[in-house]
Structure formats: C-alpha cells, structure tokens
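User: Predict the full complex structure for these chains.
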Amino acid sequence: MKLGFLTAPFPETPLMEVADWAASVDFEVLEIACWPRSTGATRKYAGTSHIDVASLTDAEAGEIKAQIAEKGLDISGLGFYPNPLHPDPEVRAAAIEHLKAVIVATGMMGLPVTNTFCGGDASKNVDQNWEEALKVWPDIVRFAQDHGVKITYENCPMIFSYDEWPGGHNIAYSPYIWRRILDAWGGTVGLNFDPSHLVWLMIDQGRFIREFGDHILHFQAKDVMIDRDGLYERGSLSGGIGWQIPRIPGLGDAPWDEIFSALYRCGYDGPIIIEHEDKVFEGTDEKVKRGFLVARDILRPYVK
Amino acid sequence: MKLGFLTAPFADTPLLEVADWAASVGFETLEIACWPPASGVERRYAGTSHVDVANLSDAQGQEIAAELAAKGLSVSGLGYYPNPLNPDPAHREQVIGHLKHVISAARKMGVPFANTFIGADASKNPEQNWEEALKVWPDIVRHAQDEGVRIAIEHCPMLFTYDEWPAGHNLAYSPRQWRRILEEWGGTVGMNFDPSHLVWQMLDADRFITEFGPHIYHFQAQDLHIDQDAFYEAGGAMSNGMGWQIRRLPGLGSVDWALIFSRLYRAGYEGDCIIEHEDRGFEGTDELLKRGFLIARNTLRPYCE
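Assistant: Here is the predicted structure of the two-chain assembly.
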C-alpha cells in the first residue's frame, strides 16, 4: 500500500507545487483532481482542475507522469465526481462528455482508474434511478473498455441538504445496488471505497469489505463523525442532514484498525488516498496541510 | 398504571365481546379503535370501527362507557390514525371531519384523549409539511378545546414502502418537530408515546423521555427489531426503515422496557399502558392475536402497577 491524497483542496496551487509539498512530507501517491477548467468551484471540494484533460496531448500526458515520478510519487487515478444521472439533459451531457475526456486522459497517462460517481436523480427512488443508470452507463463503460481504463464509483450517497433530498446524487452506496452494478459491469467498474460513508449509513464495515473487497479498485480515507445532538434532533430518517460531519481520518468514528484489518485480509494492495473535507482544517493552505498531516500520522502505521 | 390494548386487531368482533375477553385475562383498560364504519380496511391495522362516532349520541356515549366500566375496564382514549395532511383535498376534508367526530365522541364518553396523527404529504420535506400543518391544525385544535378533549399524536413516521416515501404520512416523529408542535399547541396537543419508533430512528429513548416526558398523554407499548440483513442490504440509514423495521410484540423486539418504564415513572407519567399489536408472527386468527396479546401482557405486567 502507498499513502497519498486527492489534490482537490488545493485548487489555486499548480499540480507540481502540490506534488513538491506531498513528496516533502513523505506522501507516496496522488489522486489528481480533474474537473473541467471552465467550471470553477461549483460545490465545495469540487471544481479543482489540476490537469486540463479536455486538451491534453499524449506528449503532455507522458510529461506530467514523468515529472511526478521524478519527485518519487505515483498517481493512483484521476478524479472527477459529477452527476452523470442529472435530470437536466444538458448538465448530464456536459458531465458525461468531460468524464469521457478524463477516461481518455487516464489511458494516455497509463493510469489504472478513473474515479467518479454513478450519479442519481435526487427526486427518484433507488430502483427508478437504477433503470436510468442501465440506459446511461453501458456507453460509458464501453468507452472505458476501449481505452483500457477501469472506472470506480465512490460509495457516497451525495446528500447534504434538501438540495439533494431525498435520493442523493449517487445511488452507488448500498450493497443492494452494488451487487447490480457488479453484475452489469463488474471487471470494468469497481469500488472507490470510502469507509466514512458507512459510518453514518450505519452499515457494518467488516461485512461490507468482506462482500465487496475483491471489487475495491481504489481506496479513499476519509472519516465521519455522527453529531449525536443532530441525530437526536432529526432521527435516522433525515438522510444524514445536519448530523454526518466529515472529518480528517482519526478524528471521526471510522474504526481504522478494523478497516485495514479487513482490507489486508481481502488482499487489497492499492493506494490509500486521503480525502480532506474537514471544515475545521480549511480556509488557509496551512490549515489544509495541517489536516493532511494529522491524517498521515493516523494512517501511516497501517500503510505498508 | 393500567394495562390494556388498542382494539384495532379485532376488526370483526363487537366491542363488548373484545371487552369481555380483555377483562377475563386481566386487562384493565382499552384504547378503542374508531375508524369510520364505511372505510373498511385501507391498510393493515387501520379500519376497525368499534364505536360509530359519527352517529353517537351523548346517551349512547355514556352507555358504552358504563358497560365497559361494569366489566372493570376504563377507556384510555379513542384511536383514529388517518392522514389529516393528505395532499388530496377531498380525502383530507373527509378524515378531518371524522377526526372531529372522534374528538366529540371522546367528550361524550368522558374519555380524556383522541389519539391520532398530524399527517404529512409524503412528497414534501419536513419543513414544507410543517408549514401546511400550521394552516390545517389550528381549526382541529380549537374543536378539541371546545369539546374539552386533548389530542395525543403518535410519533410514528408512517413510512413503510415507496408508497409513503420519502417523508412518510406523519410529520410528528422528530424532536425538532415536536418542539414546534408543543410550542404551538402544547396543553391541548401532547404525545402518544410509542418507544418502538425510536428504535429504528436511532433516537435515544432516555433522552427523548427526559425531554418530552411531561407532554406524554398516552403510552402505546409496541416493540420493534431491526432486520440487520435487510438494513445492510438497503444501504442503512438512507433507506428510511423500508424492509428492515420489523414490528413485534413487546418483549420480542429491541425496546429496553426496563429503561422505558423507569423513565416514564420518573417523568411522572400517570396514564395507561396500551399494547399495540402489529406483529405478523401473531396474526391471521383470533387465537394467534390473543396469544400475542398475552405475551405482551406477561412482558409488561410487572411494570404496570
């Protein structure tokens, strides 16, 4: 295993400067944020464009990879997390078009995975969304196969407020849907597993990793704490709104010893990518870095 | 604290026969199911009409109460659990009209509480539903005040399948909404407390009773267990209880009855304990139903004095 982070929280810093800092504090791998250049930050933690994939040439792709390698860093994958099942056809088309550009760039750079979401129409239920996914995704899956790239979906429900209520913006969070995803596209599509989502969904970590461990292609290390006052206030019917609090690994409720124990047991030997969405450690570069260092020190003992 | 049950599962048995059996096995009180006689069974456990409240005279009301008293039974409340915030105006008007009859019947029978739901439009979020409640409920609350009857709202989310998804058919389930309800109508409207709903909502029962104990008018004893396989399968907390909240008789689920009674007594609750039977393992025949009630009786009897 190698330890690193998703570059999204450094939207204003060029990729090579981010890589310099990462290497200087002993990180070994990066997941590179690849939102479109033009979008800017449409949501917190979304919008960082460290590679302009839409206009990337083969030569540039080789160069970026070589420069990163010179610093002693690997690249775990390219990350772009939009909503490919968005109900607005234009938003959906733009998301899928860019997603394909990320897939192409992943292939050009010789990387194993493009990391994204399955998507979801928040107003529909899970089964209705799955019907839509069956229409939208075969084309993207074929595209990835043609480019020799695998796709991972993060298991995040993408619900934070009534804007994404009640269905969330990504249906790929339940074992029920994951079995369908793997039936339909297993081998090309796998999991970008983030245990923090299981914390507030209250899904058993060990059981989930036992069942889906063979299909984990990428691992994001994020933590979540349940705000007990917030949960009491609204109950489990509230889709986590007001009580699922993203934290730096080690500062939430995720049982890291159990998680790494299960990951090693199922044979996972990929990257461990810290995902930083902890409000307590943001606002300045120094705070963001401090957050990453806490996460590094918590996870370092497990990552060999 | 008197022990009894909600009469809803005995849809085809006249009230006084239900009462005979109840008294014969040591129950002391009944919550009487008062759906409209015409409605029939629209949902499991809904539709029983043991008193025809729409056509009840004062004399008839007193007579029913006297007949039950003669059997050694009191009446804890009249129960009718519809959706007063149904989005269909005709449906809404009909259930509110009947709810008012139930309230008036409680006065006629000398029963302290009409037990019901606030209701909700399943397609709206809790904030939007609350706005609607503020328009609909003042009129019902005034009617109850005029009749000298209090209204006990059960804190059941009424969410079982995609038919009631995502918001359920009763907004009165979270502490957040309950604070608003009590601020608006406290004194006339209180809680019909059922600890089974706290189990699957992952709400701390101790904290809940500590906060809302003084407003508990009526207590329904139902139990619930979480089907852990189904919970895992459906995606845990995102799946809103669908497929994994399993209703059980008291003693067969996850409710910590010792804690519940400990805190109810501590909060000064002086009302009755009414078993609510929705356990699929004990239904289909009268004999199975009664067996279920007897298990619940034996579980709860030690606590009810």
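The CA atoms of residues 33 and 79 of chain B lie 5 Å apart.
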